[in-house]
Specification:
This protein has two helices and seven strands, in the order αββαβββββ. The chain has 119 residues and is α+β, with helices and mostly antiparallel strands.
């Protein structure tokens, strides 16, 4: 009888964890990015992010075409309108940590993505 109860618990526990969504939250988009003892979050300005986190390891401008698709902006060229312009800032914290990509639109932080582990 004790074995039967233990078996039910062992098989039921993973089902409960997955059905509540606890395991799925690791794949969700981040809404907060930690820089030292402070955090930045969706909606913060580029100025605030740079003030708290410092300069990014890499930054790139990305323009949207008329269909809403992203296109890389050639170096030295600027888009005529800033409304279709995105900016991607990459923070690489070194070996073993994740590389984070912060995406800004109209000077506001719109998305925080993990881009794999640094090398």
């Amino acid at each position: 009888m004790l074995r039967a109860v233990a078996a039910v618990i062992l098989f039921a526990l993973p089902v409960c964890v997955f059905s509540t969504g606890v395991a799925g939250t690791a794949f969700a988009e981040d809404t907060v990015f930690r820089c030292g003892g402070e955090t930045v979050s969706i909606g913060d300005s580029r100025y605030t992010v740079q003030k708290i986190c410092g300069k990014p390891s890499r930054s790139e401008s990305v323009a949207k075409d008329s269909k809403g698709k992203k296109q890389k902006q050639p170096k030295g060229e600027t888009s005529g309108s800033t409304s279709g312009k995105l900016q991607k800032w990459t923070y690489d914290r070194g070996y073993g940590d994740y590389v984070y990509v912060l995406i800004f639109a109209n000077d506001k932080l719109k998305r925080i993505e993990k881009s794999g582990r640094a090398r």
